[in-house]
Amino acid sequence: MKSAPQRSRFGTALSLLWADKFAMFAALFLILLAITCMVGPLLIGKAASGINFAGRNAPPSFDKGFLYILGGDNLGRSLLARIIVGAQTTMAVAITAVAASVIVGALLGLVAGYRGGLVSDVIMRVTDMIMSFPSMLTALVVLYVLGPSVSNLVIVLAITRIPVYLRTTRAEVMEARSRVFVTAAIAMGASHARVIFKHILPIVLPTLLTIAAVDFAAVIITESGLSFLGLGIQAPDFTWGSMVATGRNYIASAWWLSFWPGLAITLTALSLNILASWLRIATDPQQRWRLEGGHNHD
What are residue 78's phi and psi, to 5 degrees? Predict the structure, then answer.
């Protein structure tokens, strides 16, 4: 009985996405990226680590085969293979960090907004303390003290992003509590958990998803910046940011070493921001007409 409404919602989402061609291409790019991250390393993962001095700093061409269409790095490894394998690491770090910050921030925001009082004050003061330090500076200090590693990087990125979701969720919950259907549910004896997760969370979720899409791009850029500074993922693991850092020493003689991973970062961040803009309009009943009418938004 639920399959028809589910298909209807899916069809509506597709039609809204089709109405915005930029968002559609952004979604297709991200889907292709996700498939590449899952399948690519299994197929050509060995080419990303196999040293080949004959292809050292090889320029982009078909002369050495398809894998060297983007050129070779300073050790002769295929840049195409390394970008694909590096994408898996970059995406894994970003997804884990964003998911952790969304879950923790949303739960604390739900509690702070719904309970209020001393509990809310304590949560918000801790949040203010985290926000009082620049996120990049915090990441640099923590990673320098604890040492760069995947786990430390994810923890730092997650902690610095939690306040964004916490404050947003708290504000949305405080507004939603005054709505008639929430008040009615409380008056009818619904449990606090049911009110929060059944009536309030669905209102907050679209906003959180929109922020998460933008934040995903921000986390990728931050991770790339930290890796560029040598405080991110360490060898033998690598990400797009560490590839850009490696290529900076050869920028005058082999520009492609930094250009291609940098382009991958740019296209991914741009696609996420475009999709977030579409999601903000598609989930807002007052602006959805701009897509339903078949007109692209600005």
Answer: -65, 125
Among all chains, which residue has been given the structure tokens 């902690």?
A: 159
CA–CA separation, 189 vs 176, rounded Å? 18
Per-residue pLDDT of the chain (298 residues; tens, 9 = 90+): 444 454 566 677 778 888 888 999 999 999 999 999 999 888 888 888 888 888 788 899 888 888 899 998 888 899 999 999 999 988 999 999 999 999 999 999 999 888 888 888 899 998 888 888 877 788 888 888 887 788 888 888 898 899 999 999 998 888 888 788 778 887 887 787 888 888 888 888 888 988 998 899 888 888 888 887 777 777 788 889 889 988 888 888 889 999 999 999 999 999 999 998 888 888 777 777 677 664 444 4
Q: Indicate the DSSP class of residue 78.
A: B
Q: Token pair of 259, please?
A: 């250009």
Cβ atoms within 10 Å, residue 34: 13
Q: Give dist(CA 17, CA 249) in Å, integer.
A: 42
Cβ count within 10 A of residue 56: 14
Rounded Cα–Cα distance for residues 25 and 18 (Å): 9
Q: Give one DSSP letter per residue of 195-262, joined into a string.
A: IIIIIIHHHHHHHHHHHHHHHHHHHHHHHHHHHHTT-SS-TTS--HHHHHHHHGGGTTT-THHHHHHH
Contact 88, 51 (CB under 8 A): no
First to last CA, the chain: 38
Structural contact between residues 23 and 277, judged by C-beta atoms closer than 8 angstroms: yes
Residues 64 and 59: their CA atoms lie apart, in Å, by 10
Amino acid type, 27: A
Residue type at position 29? F
Measured distance CA(102)–CA(162) in Å, rounded:
7
